[in-house]
Design goal:
The chain is mainly alpha-helical. Helix content is 52%, strand content 3%. It starts with 7 loop residues before the first helix and ends in an 8-residue tail after the last helix.
């Protein structure tokens, strides 16, 4: 096996000569990702991966240059990012009909060390954003993310219409036509605490933005904080478990994939009212501070 994971001796026997790849093939491939419901940011990421690759191989499906490119790329990024690049290049070449690419195997996923997010880290972050002129926005973002379990991209996509303030409910919508996507390509609901409700109420009174939490500004606002926006979801998961909340309900609220979960896929069905009741019990009546 070579350095890019290719099983060269068997998989690359009698490969056809390099053939030109067209712009149309690239556009069609990206359009299929859009039809699948992939978010715009991910499609742009795939496009960047493929354009860099195609520039290197001079827009030709060349086996030797492909191996050279993947070998060079391995030293430029972490394993997780490199794996994504290999998978997308492989998928694209398969779409174009080049079977020799089956011999290219991506590396295994690296072992993930889960970051522990403490209540103190949340409080420290709230203190830092309180100094910002947009403190009302970032206070709402942090409390909402920490008590709802939404992914960072889902938070960035939220509009006022997605928030049911009175019922403390978020509608996490998967609708690519509206620029809203979820990782599992399914819509769902989640909830937030009274403290988050108060912060959101204050923010919504003065806010005219849609979406509510602009990605670039939110990332910048937390640059000096001990956590990032994506860590708010980790905090929700960890605090839920510390309160002995049912894992099945946590999966539903956080939008985890239900593949392989027989109970959730075939038996467990909770109404929105029942989910909120469980949520409030776990989150201490939805009144405790993060």
């Amino acid at each position: 096996m070579n350095s890019c994971g290719a099983e060269a001796p068997r998989a690359f026997q009698d490969c056809p000569p390099s053939v030109a790849i067209t712009q149309q093939q690239l556009e069609e491939f990206l359009s299929l990702r859009e039809i699948e419901g992939s978010c715009n940011d991910w499609i742009k990421g795939i496009q960047r991966y493929l354009l860099r690759y195609l520039t290197y191989v001079d827009w030709k499906a060349d086996r030797e240059k492909t191996i050279q490119y993947l070998t060079l790329e391995r030293g430029k990024c972490n394993i997780s990012t490199y794996r994504k690049k290999v998978l997308q290049i492989r998928k694209f070449l398969m779409y174009c009909g080049y079977q020799w690419v089956q011999g290219i195997k991506p590396p295994q996923e690296p072992e993930i060390i889960i970051k522990h997010i403490s209540p103190e880290a949340i409080q420290k972050t709230l203190q830092i954003v309180s100094l910002s002129k947009e403190s009302v926005r970032y206070n709402a973002l942090i409390l909402l993310g920490a008590t709802s379990g939404l992914r960072s991209e889902e938070l960035y996509q939220l509009t006022p219409e997605d928030i049911d303030l009175n019922n403390r409910t978020i509608h996490v919508v998967h609708n690519p036509l509206q620029g809203k996507t979820t990782k599992t390509k399914h819509s769902r609901i989640s909830f937030f605490t009274i403290e988050a409700q108060q912060a959101l109420s204050q923010y919504l009174k003065s806010n005219t933005l849609s979406p509510l939490f602009p990605k670039g500004q939110c990332i910048q606002a937390l640059k000096q904080a001990p956590i990032r926006v994506k860590d708010l979801r980790k905090y929700f998961s960890q605090s839920w478990d510390r309160s002995c909340g049912p894992t099945s309900v946590k999966k539903l609220l956080m939008g985890h994939s239900l593949r392989g979960d027989i109970d959730l896929s075939h038996y467990n069905n909770q109404s929105p009212e029942e989910l909120r009741g469980i949520y409030d019990k776990v989150m201490d009546g939805a009144s405790s501070s993060v």
